[in-house]
């Protein structure tokens, strides 16, 4: 498999993971403003402390509540605390609104900013009039509404942040796959430690057994089996010898390698994967949530109705009445219920998900389910278990199958190769006594050798048998290899004693998943870096589903991008680093919990139990969550649809004008209803 990536290096990202600094838990506040969850929590509590005296000392929509009080100078206390609260507690919303307006897409942050700004400025105007100009003037203030709006909106966002953690560590963990230093060969065949970031092309480095390869390169001497699973998703170690290409971040096996650097840290394989993830996340973040779409319409509606109220009431009753009507409309437009409508449902949904092995990391994934057309799935580790099972054991000598398996295990007992560990595990399972071979060595590009009970054995490939003209059943090999197996031969004194066929194990629940997806009219597609024969076998076992084989990370990402360009919404399910760009690109990225940290951090949803069938549970939960969100938004926004025109005085000719007091009561009821409705969310599992 050729792992060279034909991609431009772009900005040339520095791959020294020590230099990368990504926030681990943050939230997009609508316009690109990012806030750390700890800061948000602190801001909420400080704002609440500031708000309590305001709520005790100022009237509620002109109504003095039983628990409220005043004293000489209390109006000054309210004004000063409200000013501090407005600028401190409102800062996240101001920043978010700025981003939304820059993008010409006013939404929730702009609506909140408008509500609290109008409430504060008009209340300040009221304070100046009643304190310095006319103490008996009937100019209502909105300090109570300002304080409660800021605190409840901060609470809503905190609830949502606590329920849904943002994927922020994927890039950092990808960069961390590279070691910090490399052993550079200098003149006189001496070596010295140098930072990986300082490596240049054409330089040669030494990679000792068990170490990470520091950069993309080509082997100039030595041989080893290199584990590329964390980087490429390949389940088996890949034999490397002079002329072979290696990838930075993969793990060297038992042999020592001299590698000539062919790509620096800024344009190597991992760097290109990081850029794919960055670009995919950037484009994905442009998607708009349902709550923001509702907020946008409310913003425009409130602005239009408020301005009309100002103009009409100014003509009828004067500017002060017109101004108060407009302010009432704009303050009512940002109800407490709307700020809690979605966060309460999300909090309930993520709690239910966690109880059922589903970790929802991005709330948008719940909304994207509505239009889902395709589910793309990685093969190894997702649809299969990612471990090599002994599928066939054939003796071609007088050895029994148990004796043959015992010899295979003895020769490979000290090898870390996945095929070897699979056989040793099977031998132990059958209760065989394993005697590790002495003088075990790797055969260049072939297999291993070792001495057991004084006899020299070799474990080799069919290619080795061909090259050394040793007889074996070629048809038998093609049948086993065609079924997706890795075939190994045990030879002694140039005679083939037997062979093993090992293959990845299909998860039993994968069959049911395919059937359930098809019943939901969602098309399953398998994406894999494995060879076509292995992919074809798995696709056939799963009901002849569509598949794409021999894919590099950018190939998977391109398949998804192409499908999206055709107007389809897609989900990607994977577990390896090679899946990270695809997980980020897809409308919904789902990571298998047993997969790599990088895959998990690139995903929107994590299947904690590593059970692919939990995809169905997620789809069912998402659909139920969407219903509740729509219901709550109707309760929250529905209040506005009725209250804003009434507050503007549309029914004034027949004597009906919504008073601030009635508006306050409706607002409170709306908040209670959305909270109660969120609690009715449940996940109904299929039997």
TrEMBL record:
Its EC number is 7.2.2.8. The keyword Translocase applies. It is a multi-pass membrane protein. Its main location: membrane. It comes from the Bacteria. Keywords: ATP-binding, Cell membrane, Copper, Copper transport, Ion transport, Magnesium, Membrane, Metal-binding, Nucleotide-binding, Phosphoprotein, Translocase, Transmembrane, Transmembrane helix, Transport. The chain crosses the membrane at residues 76-94, 106-122, 142-164, 297-320, 326-346, 633-656, 662-683. It catalyses: Cu(+)(in) + ATP + H2O = Cu(+)(out) + ADP + phosphate + H(+). Pfam families: E1-E2_ATPase, Hydrolase. It is found in: Cell membrane. The keyword Cell membrane applies. Coiled coil: none annotated. Residues 177-278 form the P-type ATPase A domain. Belongs to the cation transport ATPase (P-type) (TC 3.A.3) family. Type IB subfamily. This is P-type Cu(+) transporter. It comes from Fructilactobacillus ixorae.
């Amino acid at each position: 498999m050729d792992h060279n990536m034909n991609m431009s290096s772009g900005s040339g990202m520095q791959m020294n993971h020590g230099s990368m600094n990504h926030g681990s838990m943050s939230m997009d506040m609508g316009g690109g403003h990012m806030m750390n969850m700890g800061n948000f929590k602190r801001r909420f509590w400080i704002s609440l402390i500031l708000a309590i005296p305001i709520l005790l000392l100022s009237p509620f929509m002109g109504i003095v509540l039983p628990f409220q009080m005043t004293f000489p100078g209390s109006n000054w206390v309210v004004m000063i605390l409200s000013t501090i609260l407005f600028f401190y507690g409102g800062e996240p919303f101001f920043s978010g609104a700025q981003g939304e307006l820059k993008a010409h897409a006013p939404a929730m942050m702009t609506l909140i900013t408008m509500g609290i700004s109008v409430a504060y400025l008009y209340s300040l105007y009221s304070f100046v009039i009643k304190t310095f100009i006319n103490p008996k003037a009937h100019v209502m203030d909105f300090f109570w509404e300002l304080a409660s709006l800021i605190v409840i909106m901060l609470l809503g966002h905190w609830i949502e942040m606590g329920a849904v953690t943002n994927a922020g560590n994927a890039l950092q963990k990808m960069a961390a796959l590279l070691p910090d230093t490399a052993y550079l060969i200098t003149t006189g065949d001496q070596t010295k430690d140098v930072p990986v970031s300082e490596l240049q092309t054409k330089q040669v480095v030494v990679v000792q057994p068990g170490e990470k390869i520091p950069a993309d390169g080509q082997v100039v001497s030595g041989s080893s089996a290199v584990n590329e699973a964390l980087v490429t998703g390949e389940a088996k170690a890949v034999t490397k010898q002079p002329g072979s290409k290696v990838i930075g971040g993969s793990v060297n096996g038992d042999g020592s390698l001299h590698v000539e650097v062919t790509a620096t840290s800024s344009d190597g394989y991992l760097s290109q994967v990081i850029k794919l993830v960055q670009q995919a996340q950037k484009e994905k973040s442009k998607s708009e949530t349902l709550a923001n779409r509702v907020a946008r319409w409310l913003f425009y509606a409130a602005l239009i109705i408020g301005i009309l109220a100002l103009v009409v009431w100014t003509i009828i009753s004067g500017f002060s009445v017109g101004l108060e009507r407009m302010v009432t409309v704009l303050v009512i437009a940002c109800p407490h219920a709307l700020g809690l409508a979605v966060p309460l449902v999300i909090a309930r949904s993520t709690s239910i998900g966690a109880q059922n092995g589903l970790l929802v990391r991005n709330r948008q994934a719940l909304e994207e389910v509505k239009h889902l057309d395709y589910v793309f799935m990685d093969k190894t580790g997702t649809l299969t278990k990612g471990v090599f099972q002994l599928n066939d054991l054939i003796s071609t000598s007088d050895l029994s199958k148990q004796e043959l398996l015992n010899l295979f295990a003895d020769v490979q007992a000290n090898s870390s190769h996945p095929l070897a560990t699979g056989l040793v595990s099977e031998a132990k399972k059958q209760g065989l006594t394993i005697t590790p071979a002495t003088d075990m060595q790797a055969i260049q590009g072939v297999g291993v050798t070792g001495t057991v009970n004084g006899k020299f054995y070799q474990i080799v490939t069919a290619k080795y048998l061909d090259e050394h003209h040793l007889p074996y059943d070629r048809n038998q090999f093609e049948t086993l290899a065609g079924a997706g197996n890795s075939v190994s031969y045990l030879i002694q004194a140039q005679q083939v004693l037997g062979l093993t066929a090992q293959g990845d194990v299909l998860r039993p629940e994968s069959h049911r998943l395919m059937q359930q997806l098809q019943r939901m009219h969602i098309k399953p597609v398998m994406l894999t870096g494995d060879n076509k024969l292995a992919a074809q076998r798995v696709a056939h076992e799963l009901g002849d589903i569509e598949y794409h084989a021999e894919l590099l990370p950018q190939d998977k990402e391109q398949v998804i991008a192409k499908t999206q360009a055709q107007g389809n919404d897609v989900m990607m399910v994977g577990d390896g680093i090679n899946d990270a760009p695809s997980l980020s690109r897809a409308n919904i990225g789902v990571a298998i919990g047993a997969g790599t940290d990088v895959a998990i951090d690139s995903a929107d949803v994590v299947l904690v139990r590593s059970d692919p069938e939990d995809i169905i549970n997620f789809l069912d939960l998402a659909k139920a969550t969407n219903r509740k969100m729509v219901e709550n938004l109707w309760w929250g926004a529905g209040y506005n649809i009725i209250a804003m025109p009434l507050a503007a005085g549309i029914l004034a000719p027949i004597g009906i004008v919504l008073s601030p007091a009635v508006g306050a009561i409706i607002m409170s009821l709306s908040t209670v209803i959305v909270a109660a409705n969120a609690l009715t969310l449940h996940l109904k599992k299929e039997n």
